[in-house]
Amino acid sequence: MAVYVWKGRTLAGEAQAGEIEVARQEDALDALRKKRILVTSLRPKSGGMSMPKFGGGVSVSTKDLAIFTRQFATMISAGLPLVQCLDILAKPASKPAFGKVISEVTREVEAGATLSDALGKHKSVFDDLFRNMVAAGEAGGVLDEILMRLATYIEKADALKRKVQSAMVYPGVVLTVALGATAFMLIFIIPTFAKMFTDFGGELPLPTKIVLGLSDFLTHWWWTLVLGGIGSVIVFQRYYATENGHRAVDGFMIKAPVLGDVLLKGAVARFTRTLGTLISSGVPILAGLEITARTAGNKVIAEAIMSARASIREGETVSAPLKASGVFPPMVTQMISVGEQTGALDEMLTKIAVFYEAEVDTAVDTLTSIIEPIMIVVMGGIVGGMVVSMYLPMFKLISVVAGGN
Fold first, then answer.
1. Backbone phi and psi for residue 93, each to the nearest 5 degrees, phi listed first
2. pLDDT for position 231
3. Which helix (H) or strand (E) holds 38?
């Protein structure tokens, strides 16, 4: 048995925390879920500085899961028995571990378990969204349609995730290259000029002194920057692991200039696509909102979704608390309100998702077009500034020599 420290929220949105003693992390999640608590953080009591994470066990790529789901749907729609479909799919799995999981699911189904229950024993591979949609498909007798819809959802969600990640990675890569080029010049090129200026003697211009000082610091005290960077990462992780820190960082990210626009639109697209898919598949809206909150990827948006869930429990609308949160764009809340009034909420959510997925593409292109000229100017300014500062003493020397003649 192990002790886990958890943080979460009740269905009414009240923050709670505590400890629980169970054999596995999955058991802790199950126990807290039965108490109707939405878990936001779960870690062993021994601590550590890793980010909150859930699940474990077999790791399956989104691509493999999407291929499995689409092939499964095709076989079911062709009339093949469920067990035979699973047995066929277990053999060509790209990863042996995934094939083993499918084989175990096959044995559970052969023993009389429902497909959703069998999948529930492998929560590290099949998440709540996957299992709930399968359960809805089994109950409605439309498992093939649900699986096909689920495969489409997984593919679109993965494509959206890659777009948002590329938007976040691109500035980091460009900044790293810029800093690397600057550090290379300061460590390997500038010291050559420093020795030459020392031999010349005389008073150096202020810009030259600044560049030489930076070069000397980076050459002899680089380790302080490394330690400072490591310390900053540790402090940030500790802060992000707290309730207020998590909320503050996620809130800042979606409000940051340019990049925040990409992240917010990506979060809106993910939220509407997930909830629309769940509702259209027959999953109850309360369960759908809880699952959507867990997959939101942003604490501020997750809390807004849970407020909407509490509103639904009290007989009110979904759109009102989303609008009150101030996070979602007015168009989103208005379209959701129209969807509720017309009884076509799932269709309206899908339309919003399609629109915002296209908006993410545009926002990523905009981000790229803005960053490229800015980084060219910044790099040109840094390199040009260092070159000029190194040549200033030479100009001074030339003028002195010319004056002497």
1. -55, 135
2. 92
3. strand 37-44
